[in-house]
Known about the structure:
Blueprint: H1 5-11, H2 17-32, E1 38-40, E2 43-46, H3 51-66, E3 74-77, H4 94-109, E4 134-135, H5 138-148, H6 157-166, E5 168-170, E6 184-188, H7 194-208, E7 213-216, H8 222-235, E8 242-243, E9 259-263, H9 265-275, E10 283-291, H10 293-303, E11 313-318, H11 320-325, H12 327-334, E12 338-341, E13 356-359, H13 362-371, E14 375-378, H14 381-388
Parallel strand pairs: 2-3, 2-4, 6-7, 6-9, 7-8, 10-11, 10-13, 11-12, 13-14
Antiparallel strand pairs: 1-5
Helix pairs in contact: 2-6, 3-4, 5-8, 7-8, 7-9, 8-13, 10-12
Amino acid sequence: MFLTRDEEAILNGERGCGAQRAMELLVAIGTVYEAECLLPIRSAHLSGVSYKTIGEGGLDFLADMASDARVAVRTTLNPAGMDLARWEEMGVSKRFADRQLEIIDSYSKMGVETNCTCTPYLAGNLPRKGDTVAWAESSALSYVNSIVGARTNREGGPGALAASILGKTPAYGLHLDSNRKPTVVIEAEIGGGVLDYALLGQVVGKKVANAVPYFRKIRPNPDEAKTLAAAMAASGSVAMFHIEGMTPEANDADLKGLERIGVGRKDLTDARESLSTGREPDLIALGCPHLSEAEVRELASMLKGRSKKTEIDVWFCTSKAMMERCPREVEVLERFGRVLCDTCMVVAPIEDHYSCTATNSAKACNYLPTLCSQKVVCASAAELMEMVT
């Protein structure tokens, strides 16, 4: 891989140990994927935030990097393992909380913005069409590749951190035009709503793995698109997709000779049944990916004037930015559960208190059994709210 003189100097340690380690990692990644060079990036978004997922090793690594490394571009952070202000209400232990706050402190020392959300594009970090970025949250990177038209690979946490420190990433994968072209056509016959699009993503991710699907006959709104992206990234490893008439690059796509896969109502019903492994939830959790402003308002509208009639705990997971935009709606939701920021049900230690979680997120349904030892109930937001009123 070609390096400039400045990049060679960084690799030789002339700009400090943190930058050197970052360059070593990017060179290793670039070599594996046969990248010709490094590309400048406009932003980064980092995973590897929850103490639950990175543990003591991750905590020590970040503390070491924070000793002399600083980010070179705007960099945002994925959800942590707890609401940074309300962790006691979540039942999080002080030991866990102390270590989680150490992780956040290390990122802050490196200049990373610590408003932790999996939807940074809704909270100020919104790339423009054609921007080169390095994002590590699977649902967010798929969304910006496919809906915004920015360019990022499915970065790992350390790779995205290294890119943020250097302001560069290796030129391979979805940064190249040739790898952004559709490889399979999806003929989708579905209704609408977030759950339907979550289930569509579940079905397609299972069928196509890491392909680049091209969707016909659908027109999702932004919330439906983000849940579609999240589900395909979780059930498969889709990092980019095209929607006819919507994705910036879709009009240039050549579909001749591509395999065509049909998805209909029965496929969605079967997917919902396969995801639902439980019956009686002790936690209802919405916001994977984090609830948007429109979703917060819609949920509040469903609940306004009603009262909670069950002991089931309810979590509404969102970002600080959405809470600030919807203060009245947050008041309504707080009468039925907790509106939590900085975290989500997947990366929080919910297994300490719950055994069955109900959600409208196919992404969460994929991860909850393995990461959180949960049985799962897959249902629409309206059905979930009916469970508590």
